[in-house]
Amino acid sequence: MRSRRLYRITKTLLTYGLDDIVPARWLPWSLRFARHALFWMPNRHKNKPRGERLRLALEQLGPVWVKFGQMLSTRRDLLPPDVALELAKLQDKVKPFAGEQAQQIIEKALELESIEQLFIDFTVQPLASASIAQVHSASMRIEGELEQVVVKVIRPDIRKTIHADLELMETLAAILARHLPDGRRLKPKEVVREYRKTLLDELDLSREAANAIQLRRNFEDSELLYIPRVYSDLSRNNVMVMERIDGIPVSDVDTLQARGVNMKKLAERGVEVFFTQVFRDSFFHADMHPGNIFVAKDETENPKYIGIDFGIVGTLNREDKRYLAENFLAFFNRDYRKVAELHVDSGWVPSNTNIEEFESAIRTVCEPIFQKPLAEISFGHVLVNLFNTARRFQMEVQPQLVLLQKTLLYIEGLGRQLYPDLDLWETAKPFLERWMQEQVGWRAVVRAVKENAPYWAEKMPEMPMLLYDNLRNQKRFQQQFERRSVALINAQRHNAESRLWAMLSAASVVTAGVFYALSQPWVVSAAGAAAAVVFAWLSWRKRPAAVAVDPHF
Q1: Which part of the chain is the ABC1 atypical kinase-like domain (predicted)?
Q2: Where are the domains of the chain?
Q3: Which end of the chain is more exposed for a tag (fewer CB within 10 A), N or C?
Q4: What is the spatial distance between Cα 378 and Cα 323, in angstroms, rounded to a whole number?
């Protein structure tokens, strides 16, 4: 099985001429020889550009490779622009599997004797089909009301295929990392490892259901974004039931314009949704490509987004959020030294980085951007340039920032597709400035008081006893300290006296020995020896005693 799959992958890659993308001088003689030996697999698409050949090959290899190409299309810091743009065309649509098989999976997962036991009007023909799962429409009674729902089902045996393909990808990545001169910068093994985690997370629909519930709670009663209800008691790791939404695909610009939707406001609200998720909630939908976003039909002047497919989410901690906001503000104020210092302060680059050299590198990359009008500046590419420059200064890969960069590229591309004159910076700047003001100054104090007030109120009845215990312990510690100080002084005095008597004892021994050597009367030598014994006994008597220490001191 594995050898057949490897043969098919090799044949597909070679017949699309992907070996030509890598210069022959970069390959060891063994790989060059193997390529010539496989003479029956010639490049059959020589007339197509390299990016198109790569896209077509991934489409032919199947859903795992299509998803991999989609992920690569967001890593514009690693790929040439023409290849990245071509990979961005990959469509997340594949041939569906049999609806009857999906029905059996649902019945087994939900422990149903038949699908009709729970669902009414279950549609065997899938409503949509993607690389990991497909969706079926149905209806069911909830609290006496008939509700329209969709049932998402993971493809059968997809795990086996995914694990097999991932193993082959890792093998190929290891070969590339070892033999390509630029393999260290491209980090193929790290890219595949990142893809493995993302893909395996998407296979667990229980995780996706939890993500959807969290996002719905974050945007409850919001005018910006609607998240469909998920029926968690009917969700398993391979099946998920959720509310069916009725919206217009955000990529259907013609329909949106025909309905009179305020496209400028729609584009601006997309930016606001992104920054709200990142900086307010620290929990953001990290797969917001056009296929996962719809627009509600009921509002045209105040359009609302509808989000689906929550398998991939990103999180940021408080420090990352603050440094990101400050980085954006410093960049657009063209304060490159501040950008460099923030990267060091955040720990993204080593603390021994030369700030002046780092500042100069950032200025070299970013200053030409400001030759364009702000409306033409790509926010996502700014982030790519910053991270790419920082990588030269040993910046480690930050997984949460990679997801953020990917999502920002999606949002920016979508916003400019809806409204080409969108000025992303003018839309984002007020939000970032307001958020920064809330993190420092009196607003931050007020917010901290509000957040901690319940805890303080809970502890308030205990304050008198805590104060009494503290004062009592303080008094005990003071007494212990005084006793220990006196003991230490006495020990030092006894130690000095013991050393004095020890020195006199040694001197007496030497004197007795000298008298004996000079043949003096034995009485004199004996007296010296007796004095040495007496002085030694006094030294032993005056030795300092051990100082007792309170274990709670």
Answers
A1: 89-343
A2: 2-90+166-181, 92-156+204-244, 249-439
A3: N
A4: 20
**287 included as an active-site residue:** yes
91 has binding-site annotation:
no
Residue whose tokens read 């990959």:
90
Which architecture does CATH list for 92-156+204-244? Answer: 2-Layer Sandwich (3.30)
3-state secondary structure of 219: coil
Question: CA angle 221-224-227, nearest 5°?
Answer: 65
User: Helices 379-392 and 399-418: crossing angle, nearest 10°?
Assistant: 150
Six-digit token pair at 57? 């090959």
pLDDT tens-digit series, residues 177-204? 776 655 555 567 777 777 777 778 788 8
* Candidate list 77, 92, 165, 287, residue with the active-site label: 287
* Tens digits of residue pLDDT in 138-153: 999 888 888 999 999 9
Cα angle for residues 345, 425, 348 (degrees, 5° grid): 20
135 is in an annotated binding site: yes
Asked if 543 contacts 494 with a C-beta cutoff of 8 angstroms, the reply is yes
With CA atoms as reference, report the closest residue to 156 among 109, 196, 92. Answer: 109
pTM of the predicted model over 0.90: no
